[in-house]
Amino acid sequence: MAFLPDVEQPTRKIPFREKVMWTAITLFIFLVCCQIPLYGIKSSESSDPFYWSRVILASNRGTLMELGIGPIVTSGLVMQLLAGAKIIEVDQGIKEDRALFSGVQKLFGIIITIGQGSAYVFSGMYGDVRDLGAGNALLIVIQLGFAGIIVLVLDELLQKGYGLGSGISLFIATNICETIVWKALSPTTINIGRGTEFEGALIALAHLLITKTDKVRALKEAFYRQNLPNVTNLLATVLVFMIVIYFQGFRVNIPVKNLRQRGQAGSYPIKLFYTSNIPIILQTALVSNLYFVSQLLYKRFSRNIFVNLLGVWHDAGRGSGQSIPVGGLAYYISPPYNFAEIAADPIHAIVYLVFILTTCALFSKTWIEVSGSSSRDVAKQLQSQQMTIPGHRSHEMKKTLDRYIPTAAAFGGLCIGALSVFADFMGAIGSGTGILLAVTIIYQYFEIFTKEKAELGSIFF
């Protein structure tokens, strides 16, 4: 694995200000790559089959960040599943095993990057391959591969301790927050049949109040205009932010004590969102892949009854001329965008609600088993640290943890799914999934800052 890019572990404690600097540099490089267009493409105006997954992939179409964090996330999830299912034997306590596991994960990520880049090119996303030519096609794949390696190195840089958090979380949160800010403050003008309007909800509100003599009508239009961001969407986004932050504080603290040192006691916190945002990421990845397969099949076999059962698509839809599902399974697992759509087709809303809640709960409960955070794994970790729960013997810890962890995982996944559905029904900007990801990641960074501040006394050291 010596040929793979690698970031060495820091040989000294990195000061907080230096961590902030490296985090800012990492984010700057990512944002620059999001604006550099791919050289050699002929067209990127066709319907985007990956539109639905871009919110969690931190990707930007037609740029170096076309693939975003997709290959890294995919390789990481697959390796975790293989290790959790004991298909591959890995002892994270052994340095050589950790290095080999990390190296294989990187190699797998690079292979996925090249494979996805090649699939993008040969599927015609950048124009007909015959028009591109072999040279341009190869050049596009090389650019995407190089960008994938950059993302891999930036993520490892932060995870090794040079920065704060992880690159994946940072890029996802930035991408989602950028979308929300743009939809609120975009000065771009659009005409969809009602005259020239500003895209940004707040800019449109100010414009309508200034230009219209009937202020009540202007406010009503700013709050409820269709097919463009409105003030109601913005308020719904703020409300969801506040609700998620409130639920982040829900936890059960299990007291633990050290067997070796008397008097040394602490607690093991089990949060309501025990698996964090993993359930919604897995659920969205599943749905996005189904959308992708359904769109490809529908374009080629639109008259086939089985293809129509999987999904029926129309190009005339919201946002940038993207294809939207209007029938079949893809339609029923897609979110209604407002209460009017819920009232028009309540069965769609009910099926979507049941699907989200069920998959999020199942993914959450499954994830604790394959990621090393189940009751059995936590009990082993506490025993290895010579810790025990007061009033219980060491071999009874698993039974005690079983009362909390599986319930927290399943119920937490259910709550994550319910909040996502609520955000979608309210019409929140950036989709329910996007907002949940952004809030949970921002809260994680808040906890990191709080911890660093407590250790150093001041955030300026």
Structural class: mainly alpha
Number of strands: 7
| Rg result | 24 Å
Query: How many separate helices?
Result: 18
Low-confidence stretches: none
Mean of all residue-level pLDDT scores: 82
Along the chain, the helix and strand elements come as HHHHHHEEHHHEEHHEEHHHHEHHH
Most strands sheet = 3 strands, antiparallel
Estimated helix fraction:
55-70%
The termini sit apart by 37 Å
The best one-word shape is globular
* Strand proportion: 5-15%
Give an overview in words:
The structure is a single chain. The chain is mostly helical and 461 residues long. It has helices spanning 16-33, 54-57, 70-84, 95-122, 129-162, 167-185, 201-211, 215-224, 231-248, 278-300, 305-310, 328-332, 339-344, 346-370, 375-384, 397-402, 405-426, 431-456, and strands at 189-191, 196-198, 251-258, 265-271, 312-314, 324-327, 387-388. The strands form three sheets. The protein has a three-stranded antiparallel β-sheet. A two-stranded antiparallel sheet has the order 1-2. Strand 1 and strand 2 (196-198) form a beta hairpin. Helix 9 packs across helix 18, helix 10 packs across helix 14 and helix 17 crosses helix 18 (431-456). The protein is globular, with a radius of gyration of 24 Å.
